[in-house]
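Q: I have 73 residues here and want to know how they pack in 3D. Can you give me a structure?
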Amino acid sequence: MSHSLRAKIKGLRYKGIITDKDCDRLCKALDNEGVLDKIRAEIAELQKEYKEYGWAYDDALEVIDKYRKGESE
């Protein structure tokens, strides 16, 4: 799906509807799509392995969830 979306974005740039800078920013955001999900999954696995440090992993997961929801302060 991200490939077809990327093609549509580049089509908008070609038509002059969005700028080159906006196109590059949107494509970069697509490249980073899912990164927080991967990080969260890895931390969740570590949390199972190192139970004595569980509170630290809980805090990390809360921060990731906050940014996934777009609630950055």
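Q: Anything worth noting?
A: The two ends are 30 Å apart (CA to CA). The mean pLDDT is 79.
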